[in-house]
Structures are given as structure tokens and as C-alpha cells.
């Protein structure tokens, strides 16, 4: 075996090493991998032969660019010829050169006939050299190599970004990605506007079919109760049809939709406005894409359309990559999954990919779609490789003729005739351009001569000195020229710090417009979140306090309503949102999911991996209780319980019993109810005193004015008695409609008993171990009686 040399390209220079001690560690890759970390052992394997440092940072950047592209520079060639053993002519070299990249190895062999190799064994040696490079090279100070690597890395990345060949294509790629995303978002948002506003005005969906017009109408109408003939002109301007506008007004008068609160209407109209703004921005973005495609790939845009052409460029990565693709690859571009699946299953390969969205494929009959796709891909491949705009129109004419040939049998023109006519048109355009260019310099020269003669006459008449001579401005002109040359030589931006590429004014306008839309959507998202928080605090305050407004709203949305969610057992609530995973596990007899939407709670994220399932089960239990209670106190207490259970799983701190927490919550609720009763009782007394005063004044006033014939005033006492009887009856009436209510006396006795009843140490469950729904303070006595009875049962701590 001959000698093995290793070439290593570092940030500071080229290094050449010889692998001399391979016999000590063995010639397999595993032995080298084990010896790399130990410098004493690896130092016996490789020895430094030569080192050639780079002259400057610019030289290092040029060498790095050449190596990354697989090219050998003159400096590297001279270094290898001097450092490696010389080979006599006609004899094979008795050594090999190990390199990191096979491309540069093949180029070195073509130029210098030095045999190169790049295998796993060589790469492990290069990895060890890279690890201990600063210690293998004498004269390198600590930190010098890191500084060189940092500087070269910045320069290399900056040059790659600034001088990117595909920088123009990036604008098209970003625009088509954003356009497709906007199509999906605007469609989904429009459907959300329809669903949201249909609760208020359901008849509008059948009258207005267009999504954009529906959002505009919803934003204009607002509350349907305020819609009248005064808004007819505005509706006509939006719809463009007087009959439809009148139909909308008539439908609003007999609408069966429910009323919306002012807060809900504000949010519906705000959301409709955002949908309209996105739809308008989508139109502007499409115009921008059309303008960019006409500059970058006019032939492809003329042949297959701007949108489909931009999708092909985006999928290929750049216009250059698309031009390199053969027509067979371009035909199925975008259908890679179907192709590999067909190759794996030995089925039929796909006939078309992204090219299917072209209007030509849609117009072709079913039996000719594959042939049409193949022909169109052929013409697209030609269109990407030509720069003249004439070819795009001619190629489109060819595709139209081929389509007529498949459908009607009309023979198309030959390809050579079409290309010949296209070449003649291009030649005529070039000659016209040459004539225009030759005519422009002559006109410019005549204009310059006239301007110079005028300027010399003007200077001679004005710039006269005391001795009668005119000042000569020639030295000043020279200085100006020198300054202008220096200014041109000076870069506009600091090139050392500027790593970005330039953008055209049109690109900058669209980038800033898109950034503004993102900011507007972010601000609207904040407002929508505040609206959701307000609605959740009214509808499900306990669930919001326990698990958060967003997760709680997702659970309600998935269940269909808060009532449906309250009917769900805790085991169902735990996996709500993971139905697909559940049915798949039941079908394959695998592990069922541990959590669904409840996984997004912060409690599940804070729990350890082994306790996530237990935490999800416990949290679902508490959520089931929270959906069935109306007092806001229970939400905070349930959250405290979950926090304590989390500490118990992580730290082993014993939590409080469920009975103690529920007892404390019940006491707080009872105190709140008593305070409310005191406030309610205080209000009638103050009202009575005010009424007495007002009545006394009114009686005096009536006695003085409303005197009857016999001189007696009217007495209001019977009216007072009636009011007292009504208030007593209303107080005796229970809050809930109880079928077997005993009457006024029994009701007052029950109220007295509830005040004397002491809270028992029992859980908040019923006989069938389901949570008891607490509706009002009237039910506390029966509720406590059930708890006292159940506390003697077999499982009093079911919710612990």
C-alpha cells in the first residue's frame, strides 16, 4: 500500500498531512474514530508535511468559494506540486491524496493526474485534523484560528446572499407562497363570517353567494333591525343589483335570526372588515406577481400563465433549476409522492403534476390529458430556456393547434416552421434596436455641442475680472470629476457590513405592504382575544379560571355547546379532540390516547413525562365539575386543587382533601349569598322610606288641590296593603319552579333551617357518583342532606 496524504482546507490556509502511523491503530474506520479524541494517540497517526497560509481575508474568501464549487485554484495547484512527491513521467504515483469533497478530488486528478480519494476512512482522519488543527500547526496563537473561522464564515455567507444568482426568483417564490396561503385563509375566513353572521341574519346566505360581497354586506348592515329603505342606495352600490338589494331589505324584516349584543356586532363587523382587507391585498399581490413574472420568465408566463409558472419555479427552487429539468421531470413536478408510491407498488405512474392546473389540460378530453401534458411540458422546457418574449406566444399557438388536432383532427404546423418564423421576428427586433441605439448617440452629441456653446458664451459674459480677463473654470471641473470618481468608487453602503441583496422599489412596496398586513392581523388578534376572554367570563367563568379561556373555548367548540360539554363524563372530556387516534387505536388494538385538546393546558406541559396521563385524567375530572357549577368561586378552588396535585406528583407534597376544598368553597358561596340577601333586603327598606316621603308630600299636595265635594281627601291605604301582599307572595315564591312546594310557611321554615345546618365533611357527588349541579342557595339544605347521606357510603373520596 502506498502513502496516504490528507489535504485539509482551514480558514487560515491549506494544510497537507501524511498518515504515517496507521499500523498502530489499524486501518479500519472504527479504530480511527476511537483515536480521534486523544491527541497523544492521534498525533502519532498524522504528521504535518506543509502549510500554506492565506495572504489576506479576501484571498481566503476566494479560496473558500473555489473549494465549495469543486474548483482547484492556482495557489492550491502550486502548493500540491511543491509539497507532494514528484512523479516521473510514464510511471504511476505511489501515493494517494485524501480530500473531503469528491468534486474537488476529481478536478485535481484531471488537472494534475494526482490520484485522489474520499471515503469514510479519509473523512475520519480529516475530522481528527480539524479537531486538533491549532495544536498540529506550530506558530498559531490561541484564538487565531477561531477569529479566522468567524471572519471567513461571515464573508462567505455574505457573498452567497449578496451575489445569489437566484435572488430575482426569490421574489416570485415568496409571492406565490403568500398568494396560495391567502387563497386558503380568505376562503376559510369568509366561511367563518357566514357562519357567525348567519346566527343573526340567516336569510342573507341564500341571497348573496360571493364571499367578498357577503363580508361587505355584513359589515355594512350590522344590526338587521336598523336596516331600512334609507340604506337601499348603499346596498345597490355594493351588490350592483337593485332587485337583490330590495330582497335583502325584505328578508331582514321577516328574519328568524337571533339578536346579537353590541359587543358581538362590533366583533362581527371588525372581522368582516379584515376579510375585505385581505381580499383586496390578494388582488394587489396578484398584480405584483404578474409584473414580476413578465420580467423574469415572460415566455413561461405567456405559455402557461403566471400562477402555474410561478408554482413550477417555486417547486424547482429557481428558474435556473427549472430550465435544467427535462420535460419528463417537468411534467410530473409536484407529484413526487404519487410517483414513488407507484414505483414502490408497481402501479401506474402519474401523468401530470403542477402542470395539471393549466387551462390546456382542463380543456383536453380525458383520453388526451396525458398526451397533452407531455406536449405542454415539452414546450414549457423550451420556454424556460429562451429570453425573447416572442417565443412564448409562438409556443402557445403551437399548443392551441395541438389541442385542436387532438379534438378536431386539424393538422398543426410543423415545429420547424413555427421556430423559423419566431427567429425571423427576433432578428427584426434586434435590427430595429441596433438602429435606435446608433441614432441615439448622434442626437446626444448635437445636444451636447449646443449646450457647451451656450455655456461658454454665458461664462464669457459674466465671469470678467478687474484686468478684463475671464476666470477659467477648467481646474474646478477637474476637481469635480475627481470627486465624482471617488464617490462612484465609494460603495453606497458599507459592503463589509451589508450582507443583503438590493430590492427594487416595487419589491420594497410589496414587502412593506405585507408587513403592515401582518401587524394589522396581530393587533386584531389581540382584540379578538380580549373579546373571547370577556365572553368566557360570562358563559363559563369556572372553566376559564381552571384551564384558561382559549383551551376552554376549544373544548366548548369541539363539544358543540357548553351544555354538551357538561354532559360529557370526565373520561370523554379527557380525550376530546383525539377521536381519530382513539378509533385508530381501537382498530389496531394499540394504546389509546391519554389526552386530546386538554393537552394544551399549562398543567399538562408542566407535568413530567410519566405523570402527564395521570395529570390529564385528574384535570379532566375537575373540568367536568367546573362546567356544571355557576359560582365563580369553584373555578379558583379547583385550580388550587390541580396545582396541589401537580406538586404532589413532582415533589411529593400531600394535597388537601377534596372534601376540605369543597367545604371552603361552599362557605364562601354561602357568605356571598347572605351578603346578596342583605343587600336585597336593604334596598326595599330604602325604597319604602323614599316612597313614604314622596307619598306624604303627594298626599299633602293632593289634599290641597284634589278636594272633593264633601271635603274629604282620597285615601291610598288599600293600595299599600295590596303592594305588601304582592311582595310577600314574591318572597314566598321559590327561585326555581319546584313541583311539590309546600307554601309560604314551609318555605320560611326551610330558610331558617338552612342557616342552622352545619357543613358536613363530605364530597360533592351524588349516589351514582356524578357531580351535583349547584343552582342556588335555596337548594343548599337538600344538597347538604345528600352529602351527609353519601358521606357514609363506600367511596366518599371519589374525586380526590
TrEMBL record:
Show the ranges annotated as biased composition (Basic and acidic residues): 434-444, 677-687
Q: Which GO terms describe its biological process?
A: ribosome biogenesis
| Coiled-coil parts of chain | none
**Cellular component GO terms, alphabetically?**
box C/D methylation guide snoRNP complex; small-subunit processome
- Gene Ontology molecular function terms on file: snoRNA binding
Sorted alphabetically, the keyword list is: Nucleus, Ribosome biogenesis
Q: Where is the composition biased (Acidic residues)?
A: 730-747
Q: Domain of life, per the record?
A: Eukaryota
Indicate where this protein is primarily found: nucleus
- Sorted alphabetically, which InterPro entries does this protein's record hold? Nop56/Nop58, NOP58/56_N, Nop_C, Nop_dom, Nop_dom_sf, NOSIC
| Compartments, record wording | Nucleus, Nucleolus
Annotated region described as Disordered, given as residue ranges: 431-498, 675-770
SUPFAM superfamilies of this UniProt entry?
A: Nop domain
Q: Which PROSITE patterns match?
A: NOP
Question: Where exactly are the transmembrane stretches of this chain?
Answer: none
Nop domain mapped to chain residues: 296-425, 539-651
Question: Entry's Gene3D superfamilies?
Answer: 1.10.287.4070, Nop domain (1.10.246.90)
Q: Which Pfam families match?
A: Nop, NOP5NT
Keyword set includes Nucleus = yes
Q: Which family does it belong to?
A: Belongs to the NOP5/NOP56 family.
Q: Which PANTHER family match?
A: NUCLEOLAR PROTEIN 5 NUCLEOLAR PROTEIN NOP5 NOP58, NUCLEOLAR PROTEIN 56
Q: By what name is this protein known?
A: Nucleolar protein 56
- What is the species of this protein? Artemisia annua
Amino acid at each position: 500500500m502506498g502513502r496516504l496524504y490528507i489535504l485539509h482546507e482551514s480558514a487560515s490556509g491549506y494544510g497537507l498531512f501524511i498518515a504515517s502511523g496507521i499500523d498502530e491503530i489499524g486501518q479500519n474506520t472504527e479504530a480511527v474514530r476511537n483515536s480521534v479524541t486523544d491527541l497523544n494517540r492521534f498525533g502519532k497517526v498524522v504528521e504535518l508535511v506543509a502549510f500554506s497560509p492565506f495572504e489576506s481575508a479576501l484571498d481566503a474568501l476566494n479560496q473558500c468559494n473555489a473549494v465549495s464549487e469543486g474548483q482547484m485554484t492556482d495557489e492550491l495547484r502550486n502548493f500540491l506540486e511543491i509539497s507532494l512527491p514528484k512523479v516521473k513521467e510514464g510511471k504511476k504515483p505511489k501515493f494517494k491524496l485524501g480530500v473531503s469533497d469528491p468534486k474537488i478530488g476529481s478536478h485535481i486528478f484531471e488537472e494534475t493526474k494526482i490520484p485522489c480519494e474520499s471515503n469514510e476512512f479519509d473523512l475520519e482522519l480529516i475530522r481528527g485534523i480539524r479537531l486538533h488543527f491549532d495544536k498540529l500547526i506550530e506558530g498559531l496563537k490561541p484564538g487565531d484560528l477561531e477569529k479566522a473561522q468567524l471572519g471567513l464564515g461571515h464573508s462567505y455567507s455574505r457573498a452567497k446572499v449578496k451575489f445569489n444568482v437566484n435572488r430575482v426568483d426569490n421574489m416570485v417564490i415568496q409571492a406565490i407562497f403568500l398568494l396560495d396561503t391567502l387563497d386558503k385563509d380568505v376562503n376559510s375566513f369568509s366561511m367563518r363570517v357566514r357562519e357567525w353572521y348567519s346566527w343573526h341574519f340567516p336569510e342573507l346566505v341564500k341571497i348573496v353567494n360571493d364571499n367578498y360581497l357577503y363580508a361587505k354586506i355584513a359589515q355594512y348592515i350590522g344590526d338587521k333591525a336598523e336596516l331600512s329603505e334609507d340604506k337601499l342606495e348603499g346596498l345597490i352600490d355594493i351588490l350592483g343589483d337593485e332587485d337583490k338589494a330590495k330582497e335583502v331589505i325584505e328578508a331582514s324584516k321577516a328574519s328568524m335570526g337571533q339578536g346579537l349584543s353590541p359587543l358581538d356586532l362590533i366583533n362581527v363587523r371588525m372581522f368582516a372588515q379584515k376579510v375585505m382587507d385581505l381580499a383586496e391585498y390578494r388582488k394587489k399581490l396578484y398584480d405584483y406577481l404578474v409584473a414580476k413574472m413578465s420580467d423574469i420568465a415572460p415566455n413561461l408566463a405567456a405559455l402557461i400563465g403566471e400562477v402555474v409558472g410561478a408554482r413550477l419555479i417555486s417547486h424547482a427552487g429557481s428558474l435556473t433549476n427549472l430550465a435544467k429539468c427535462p420535460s419528463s421531470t417537468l411534467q410530473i413536478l409536484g407529484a413526487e409522492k404519487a410517483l414513488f408510491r407507484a414505483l414502490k407498488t408497481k402501479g401506474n405512474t402519474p401523468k401530470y403534476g403542477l402542470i395539471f392546473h393549466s387551462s390546456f389540460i382542463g380543456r383536453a378530453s380525458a383520453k388526451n390529458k396525458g398526451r397533452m401534458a407531455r406536449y405542454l411540458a415539452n414546450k414549457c422546457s423550451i420556454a424556460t430556456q429562451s429570453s425573447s418574449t416572442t417565443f412564448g406566444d409562438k409556443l402557445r399557438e403551437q399548443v392551441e393547434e395541438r389541442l385542436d388536432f387532438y379534438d378536431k383532427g386539424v393538422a398543426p404546423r410543423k415545429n420547424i416552421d413555427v421556430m423559423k418564423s419566431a427567429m425571423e421576428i427576433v432578428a427584426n427586433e434586434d435590427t430595429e434596436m441596433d438602429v435606435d441605439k446608433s441614432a441615439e448617440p448622434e442626437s446626444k452629441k448635437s445636444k451636447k455641442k449646443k449646450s457647451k456653446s451656450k455655456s461658454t458664451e454665458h461664462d464669457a459674459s459674466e465671469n470678467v475680472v478687474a484686468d478684463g480677463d475671464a476666470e477659467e473654470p477648467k481646474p474646478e471641473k477637474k476637481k469635480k470629476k475627481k470627486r465624482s470618481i471617488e464617490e462612484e468608487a465609494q460603495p453606497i453602503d458599507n459592503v463589509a457590513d451589508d450582507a443583503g441583496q438590493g430590492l427594487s422599489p416595487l419589491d420594497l412596496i410589496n414587502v412593506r405592504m405585507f408587513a403592515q398586513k401582518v401587524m394589522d392581523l396581530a393587533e386584531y388578534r389581540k382584540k379578538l382575544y380580549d373579546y373571547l376572554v370577556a365572553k368566557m367570563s360570562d358563559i363559563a367563568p369556572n372553566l376559564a379560571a381552571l384551564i384558561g379561556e382559549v383551551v376552554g373555548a376549544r373544548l366548548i367548540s369541539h363539544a358543540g355547546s357548553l351544555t354538551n360539554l357538561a354532559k360529557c363524563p370526565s373520561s370523554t372530556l379527557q380525550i376530546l379532540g383525539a377521536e381519530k387516534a382513539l378509533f385508530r387505536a381501537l382498530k389496531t388494538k394499540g394504546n389509546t390516547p391519554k389526552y386530546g385538546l386538554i393537552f394544551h393546558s399549562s398543567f399538562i406541559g408542566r407535568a413530567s413525562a410519566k405523570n402527564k396521563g395521570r395529570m390529564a385524567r385528574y384535570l379532566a375530572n375537575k373540568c367536568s365539575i367546573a362546567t356544571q357549577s355557576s359560582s365563580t368561586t369553584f373555578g379558583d378552588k379547583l385550580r388550587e386543587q390541580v396545582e396541589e396535585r401537580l406538586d404532589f406528583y413532582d415533589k411529593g407534597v400531600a394535597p388537601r382533601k377534596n372534601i376540605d376544598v369543597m367545604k371552603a368553597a361552599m362557605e364562601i358561596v354561602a357568605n356571598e349569598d347572605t351578603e346578596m340577601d342583605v343587600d336585597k333586603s336593604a334596598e326595599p327598606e330604602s325604597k319604602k322610606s323614599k316612597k313614604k316621603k314622596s307619598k306624604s308630600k303627594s298626599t299633602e299636595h293632593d289634599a290641597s288641590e284634589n278636594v272633593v265635594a264633601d271635603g274629604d281627601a282620597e285615601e291610598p291605604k288599600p293600595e299599600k296593603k295590596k303592594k305588601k301582599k304582592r311582595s310577600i307572595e314574591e318572597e314566598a315564591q321559590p327561585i326555581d319552579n319546584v313541583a311539590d312546594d309546600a307554601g309560604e310557611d314551609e318555605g320560611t321554615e326551610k330558610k331558617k333551617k338552612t342557616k342552622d345546618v352545619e357543613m358536613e365533611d363530605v364530597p360533592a357527588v351524588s349516589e351514582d357518583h356524578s357531580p351535583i349541579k349547584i343552582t342556588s342557595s335555596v337548594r343548599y339544605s337538600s344538597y347538604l342532606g345528600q352529602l351527609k347521606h353519601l358521606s357514609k357510603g363506600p367511596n366518599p373520596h371519589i374525586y380526590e
